[in-house]
Amino acid sequence: MRTRRVAVVGAGMTKFVRRALETADELSWQASKMALDSCGLTLDDIDCVAVGSAPDAFDGVHMKNEYLSPGSGAWMKPHIRCYVGGGTGVMTPIHGWYHVASGLFDTCLVVCEEKMSSCQPHPQGAFLTIFDHTLERPLGPNLLWIFAMEMNAYMHRYGLTKRDLAQVVVKNRANAKYHPCALLGGDITVEEVLESEAMAWPVQRLDVSPISDGAVAVVLAAEHVAHRVTDKPVWIEGVGWSLETAYWTNRDLSYPLQVEQAARMAYSMAGITEPRKQIHIAEPYDPFDYKELHHLEGLMLADKGKAPEMTALGITRRDGDLPVCPSGGLLGVGNPIAAAGLMKVAELFWQLRGEAGERQVPGNPKRGVAQAWGDLMQVGTVIVMGIA
Amino acid sequence: MVERVAIVGVGWYGFRPITPELSYKEIMYEAAVRAYNDAGINPRTDVDSFITVAEDFNEGTSIFDEYTPDQMGAVLRPNETIPGEGLHGLATAYMQIKTGLFDVVVVEAHSKASNIMHPAHIVAYAMDPIYNRPLKVHPSFVAGLEMQRYLFESGATLEQCAQVVVKNRANALLNPLAAHGADLTLNDVLDSEPVAEPLTRLMIAPPADGCIVFVLAAEHVARSLSGTPVWIEGLGWANGSYSLENRDWVDLDYVRLAAEMAYRTAGIRNPRGTLDFVEVDDSYAYKELQHLEALGLCRPGEAGALTEEGATSLDGELPVNPSGGSLGCGHLLDASGLARALECVLQLRGEAGPRQLEDVTFGAALGWRGVPTTAAAMVILSNED
Asked: Distance between CA atoms of A319 and A322, rounded to whole angstroms?
């Protein structure tokens, strides 16, 4: 049985900012409106809505998708939210994909929103409740601690230095200079990263992406609709997702096996046998600098432990052989959790259509991969998009 | 797109008013093992995708999906969480199989309601944080308002609402899964403690703990397994207006839309003549009546009288909630809709024991996400090959 082809035909996003004055629902509306306008559709043309947002604890809103439903255009429409922690931003377009690929719907509006600033004094507070209530919560761990362990494991395994990792921040912030929605675009040096405040060693302040508010939306359409709507549909060629055990203390943290599993699923669907040759642009999840490197390896775009070397050689620069995070990534554009993942999908859409303006990757890229990751260093979500 | 989707395995744990000796992980494990055995599959090799239905605030854990894979046998496999009604999870599994790329998908939903000290406080967080929450509206008050309006518009009486409770809790006495079976009289219900005029205590479904797991399969796999497949004939779901001030308090437009989609996908033109029985949300007694009307199974204002005449009882013309519904089984939070669908599966397989209905071919389940939402999902099942 041949699976229905599904394309991204429109995208829109709000600025990623430290504190949005808009409510979460208003941010969703702005992104949805921009996405619909970008392809000349209205809500009347939309058959169903897929919403993504990470922990309800940020906004303190229970059943958050019900709250986001008016702004996401879900009034009088079928509407389901999906949720895999930090992986949500790439899972939600996958969720939209099977809405359309199933044959039940011809169009789907995919909306991801995050408003972290409502969580006072700091969103890390919300993360205190993600740990196992019996085994871990009594220890009072937070996200920075466990990521520090993972970063340490990665550095130790391959003999990497903090300097090796810090170049990712420099690259991504520089890329973000050309993103109109970016929060932290600019030129910084490796030294500045290395001298920034220590959070939980080896994590320093500039190794981490910023807390942000924002929303992103994309419009998906079945093949026959996509051709009517646009001359340049960007096809969803492969999707994959995978979830590791919750017992993260029992795992080897130096390699993201769940990302590899998800990538294998997506590559096999897309018919990709040699990812390094067949993928021209990558948007791996980069909430911390080492994560971009970790994920390049999980996506099998770099040998294990070799992603830092690729970065040092300039291969992952926007004009390199394999541009990585040309958007500026989470480190440069910002990290409103679910919205940040969908931002990467929107970036592939713009890049593959040649509409990325000043940050356009040279050489007419034909195929890209976007990936997100989250939970207790546990989930991998991967989407392959192309214009072939 | 021609391949049908079947429910090939079901498993459950509970339902019980409290479960002090088991954690949510353990009740998930119990239900999952039962479902895998029922379907005759090995989760580690035979399942393409796992879906759990859960809301963080009900679980008391943020990013709850972290804690789903281990006890489901789903480690390093595709897993995702749907924060929605249990039937939204079923719809998700159905769509995945319909892409043609997934053959077997597992859906799980559970309730550990007994862990929640103040359920109304949790629901309060679902109210619009700017416009509604400052009013400190109690969820039962919203239901009371809606019930008042329903009685006014439909002409249904308090006695007819009480009859729903008497019927469902009596049905539950015949259901070994049910947590709240009871032999009540109309006066027991009407004279119970007032909660939010005109709602009384016994008109509200009491909570229960439990877990339900379904195994879904594409037709070619379903036929290769040994059990009796129950086919998903149609599905529908929809949202209405979120805000309390803008919604239509009379017309359940979201239920109507969900039903229209379900009937359309099932190719059913005459639901009343096709469906042999239904399991509908009855979180509050009046909801059963309201839902029957919104599903087009009777005319507006007719459901109360039908209930009074016994048309919706076990031996009636259209049995409604033969399981005992949420009033009799206990309200299972996000798993409530799957509990309704579970009864449909058991009835269509002929495994419903003393409450088994005769000659049933088509059944339907309707789930509602509860106050303050306007989100409903419906599934139509049959045992017809």
From this structure: 8
Prior bond to B15 cis, omega within 30? yes
Confidence of residue B385 (pLDDT cuts 50, 70, 90): confident
Nearest to B254 by CA among B84, B341, B378, B91: B378
Total residue count of chain A as it appears in this document:
388
Cβ contact A56:A309 at 8 Å = no
Flag whether A187 is in a domain: no
Residue B2 in this model has a pLDDT that exceeds 80: no
Q: For residue A191, with 0-12 CB atoms within 10 Å meaning exposed, 13-18 middle and 19 or more buried, which class applies?
A: exposed
Can you read off the two tokens belonging to residue A378?
């546990």
A312–chain B nearest CA distance, Å: 32
CB contact under 8 A, A244 and B65: no
Instruction: Please indicate whether, in this complex, the C-beta atoms of A243 and B91 are within 8 angstroms of each other.
Output: no
State the nearest Cα–Cα gap between B85 and chain A, in angstroms. Answer: 9
Nearest to B128 among A67, A85, A101 (CB): A67
The residue with tokens 């990585």 is A324
Where residue A258 sits, what CATH number does that domain have?
3.40.47.10
Question: Count of domains in chain A?
Answer: 1
Tokens of residue A205, six digits: 């302040």
Q: Name which of B74, B78, B99 is nearest A102 (Cβ-Cβ).
A: B99
Helix or strand run (H / E) with residue B82: strand B79-82
Taking CB atoms and an 8 Å cut-off, how many pairs form between chains A and B?
194
Instruction: Read off the pTM.
Output: 0.97
Q: Read off the tokens for B19.
A: 């479960």
DSSP class of residue A63 equals: S
CB contact (8 A) between residue A66 and residue B69: no
Contacts of B99 in chain A (CB under 8 A): 3-4, 98, 101-102
Which of 58-87 (A) contact B at CB < 8 A?
59-67, 69-70, 74-85
Reading the block at residue B26, the tokens are 């353990």
For B238-296, write each residue's pLDDT tens digit: 999 998 998 989 999 999 999 999 999 999 999 999 999 999 999 999 999 999 999 99
Q: Residue A2: which pLDDT band, with cuts at 50, 70 and 90? A: confident
Three-class SS of residue A55? coil
Q: A255: alpha, beta or left, given left = phi > 0 and alpha = psi -120 to 50? A: beta
Superfamily of segment(s) B5-117+207-224: Thiolase/Chalcone synthase (3.40.47.10)
**Residue B226: what pLDDT?**
83
